[in-house]
Amino acid sequence: MRSKYHQSGMTTLLITSMLLIVSLLFSLASYKNLFYQIKRTQNEVLARQAHWAAEGGLECGFSALHQKGNISDALPSFDNCKNKLSISKLTLNSENIIKSGDALSDNYLNKKIKISSGITGAIQSRSDLKLIGSYNISPDVEDKVGNKYKCIAIRFSKEIHVQGSVSVINPTGNVSYDGFLSGGECLNQYKTNTSISGSWDIDKSTSTDNPSGSGLFKLDLARDTSFDPFEPFFKDVVSNISEIKKDYNVISGSKSSNDEERCDYLISEEFKISDKVWVEGDCDLLDATKLNDMGESNINKPKILVIEDGIVATWGTTIFKGVLYHYINKSSNIYQGSELQNRWELMPSYNVNGGNNSVKINHVYNSVYINGGSFLPTGGMIFDTLNGHTTLTTGMTLTFTTDVNPNPIEKNFSWQEGSWNDL
Question: Is the predicted pLDDT of residue 116 greater than 70, yes or no?
């Protein structure tokens, strides 16, 4: 017969074993939950890593756009961004939405980029601008609102005086705004048409009729008192003008009417060599017909014509496929005393037809540029002639397009407000 002490020992061992088993089961359950928590934590870490890699992709792509200044040059840098951040996708679509992320984790971020040109306007003028005659302008585009566009026909800093009519049509060529779609229309408040007022022949000034969305002059005549086109256009500061000129064929201006000494002839000869010509001093283009004698290949190639520190006159009708930039340094002596009058009196266009011509009639008011005909630079006209006066007479149909500017247009890039959660 077993003693009760042997039986109690078995009971103790059994109870102890059961307790150990239960403890082991609890431990295993606890470890399973711990492993689950560790796995969740690791997944969360990987998810956050993928998120911030995608965020880094957006910023890297955005930085590339800023550095290159345009989309086509920036896109090759997107591959470098992907490699550095180990993401599989970084794209910019036609709606200017940049998408970044990793296909394996399916973690993508999207933001919309707002793209605008530094300075827009088919005509840009820091001088007072006078328009005599009938003007039909195909404008530049600054931005988009809904399915229509903010069109800019003329950007000016002081005054536009109209003696005649101004009609702004919908854009017909390529414009500064990258998101413009062919056939797009200007917003009504960005589309001046003075004929709607009941008269094709008005005598009005933006000094008394301030441009507004509902006024005679709409917001496509953009008053911008502080704009300075020099640095956005040349991508350098005025103090480096000597370095800027190294990229141009530089010649002296001419006031001669002799065939091979005329200013338009000298310019046309340089355009046969280079697409960028810089004229120093006064330039009388006369009827500008010599610019049509360059040959078809030179006529049609994009061009830039800069005329520096001189007065300009023309009375012919010529389409110039390029950009005209008229620049007078603010420290020039051109406005001092009788200097300006003396210069005009030496211009053949001032004396044509015995002095009975629109150039002589309109040379007053610090005039430094007078178009007595229809000289049409289809890439736009920039009058960087502070304190001067620019007069265009007889009217014109200006079909603006950026295609004839050999310099890529500098863009401003910013995130479109509301295209992401920034709380």
Answer: no
